[in-house]
Amino acid sequence: MNAVPNARPDAAATVATAISTTSAQVTVKSAEGMRDLGRRLAALLRPGDLLLLTGELGAGKTTLTRGLGEGLGVRGAVTSPTFVIARAHPPLGDGPALVHVDAYRLNGGLDEMEDLDLDVSLPESVIVVEWGDGKVEELSEDRLHIVIERAEGADGLALDEADDVRTVTLAGVGPRWAGVDLTALA
Ligand SMILES: Nc1ncnc2c1ncn2[C@@H]1O[C@H](COP(=O)(O)OP(=O)(O)O)[C@@H](O)[C@H]1O
Ligand SMILES: [Mg+2]
Q1: Which pLDDT score is estimated for 70?
Q2: CB of 50 closer than 8 Å to CB of 140
Q3: How far apart are the C-alpha atoms of 66 and 173, rounded to whole Å?
Q4: DSSP single-letter state for residue 73
Q5: Predicted model pTM
Q6: N or C terminus of the chain: which is more exposed, having fewer CB within 10 Å?
Q7: What digits encode the pLDDT tens for the residues 112-154?
Q8: Which atom of ligand 1 is nearest to the CA of 34?
Q9: CA-closest candidate to residue 33, choices 126, 129, 151, 159
């Protein structure tokens, strides 16, 4: 860490805290654990939040989103969209809607998703985009990037007994996430 001349001694510590709490890593041992992480993450969310989920097929992106839907208290079960690109789940109570997008088949970025009007729904929704990295960043300067990886052994191969273990890395971008303690999710 660089020392800041003339700064009060606690200033550097405050900055360091702000930076370190913008990202976190969580080990998730089961599908139910992934849902639970979604439910707990939902408690931190508010209208206008954009989440980008990265991870190979079967990593657990939809499972995490299912927990988000349960935590937010929205209508309809979150499923893997087969033909649908996006599904809006309206709130059952006072919370935000959940808009769940699967951008797997979309390569053209937001232009290709123009019909979805994501920019229109974002202010009153939480938008979760599977495979959204590199495609929907323009929607907001504030984003939560979530990367889900299967646990690997020291040799780089998937561990047999630990097949169900996932490592979830959350990283907030923009002022919205600067003061949020994501490590509370671990
Ligand atoms: N730790 C775990 N976290 C998430 N899913 C898990 C885990 N262990 C096993 N699974 C299983 O892996 C699959 C994940 O599927 P899904 O959530 O649809 O992935 P994606 O949307 O990333 O393609 C589900 O069948 C789920 O039950
Ligand atoms: Mg999926």
Answers
A1: 98
A2: yes
A3: 23
A4: T
A5: 0.86
A6: N
A7: 888 899 999 999 999 999 999 999 999 999 999 999 998 765 5
A8: 3
A9: 151
Domains and CATH numbers, the chain: 26-178 (3.40.50.300)
- Residue 125 has a pLDDT of 98
Taking each helix axis from N to C terminus, what angle separates 61-72 and 31-42, rounded to the nearest 10 degrees?
40
Residue 19 has pLDDT above 90, yes or no: no
**Ligand 2 midpoint to CA 163 (Å):** 18
pLDDT band at 20 (very low <50, low <70, confident <90, very high): very low
Cα(29) to ligand 2 centroid in Å equals 18
Exposure string for 70-93, b = 16+ CB within 10 A, e = fewer: bbbebeeebeebeeebbebbebee
The ligand 1 atom at the shortest distance from the C-alpha of residue 102 is 21
Ligand 2 centroid, distance to 46 Cα (angstroms)? 22
Distance between CA 72 and CA 19 in Å, rounded?
A: 27
What does the block give as tokens for 37?
A: 């992480």
